[in-house]
Amino acid sequence: MKIYLGTDHAGFTLKEKIKPYLLDQGFEVEDCGAFELNYDDDYPDFVSKVALKTAKDNSSFGIVFGKSGAGECIVANKIKKIRAILGFSAENVRLAREHNNVNILSLGSEFVDEELAKKLVMIFLKTPFTNEERHVRRLKKITLIENENLI
Question: Which of 27, 73, 133, 150 is 20–30 Å from 110 (CA)?
Fold first, then answer.
């Protein structure tokens, strides 16, 4: 399983802590930037790369970082096939994986410290989609909206 990472300056420090943690856990990681702390960078540049790569590889996941994580989540959700969530608790991440089959986790460095981030990341990566009929049905409706702007 490949994990794509991306952030701007606001999530840079947290990304740099999570990246070696994921590697130590045996995951294949591709860092899509930022590669240095630059207070003038813009999160859409890096988050869009993560989302595009994740959308092209159904077996992959993306993790994006920012100050609140909200803007990053918005950018990721602009890409077809992406279902991104703003992660803030174990329960919200678990339910998002089980019910919504989310493929990108957005974390806000202002609200999630390193230890909580590690916990949320592992829940995100290890929780399977339930494949229950009601959830599959709802995801098909989301895909219709995404592809045709129709329900």
Answer: 27
The greatest distance separating any two alpha carbons of the chain, rounded to the nearest whole angstrom, comes to 46
Per the residue annotation, which of 9, 16, 99, 146 is the catalytic one?
99
Residues of the domain holding 17: 2-148
Q: Is 114 annotated as catalytic?
A: no
How does pLDDT run across 43-77, given as a tens digit for each residue?
Answer: 999 999 999 999 999 999 999 999 999 999 999 99
Count the domains in the chain.
1
Side-chain-facing half-sphere of 105: CA atoms under 13 Å: 32
Tell me the CATH number at 118.
Answer: 3.40.1400.10
- In 3D space, the residue among 106, 114, 119 whose CA is nearest the CA of residue 77 turns out to be 106
Catalytic annotation present for 9: no
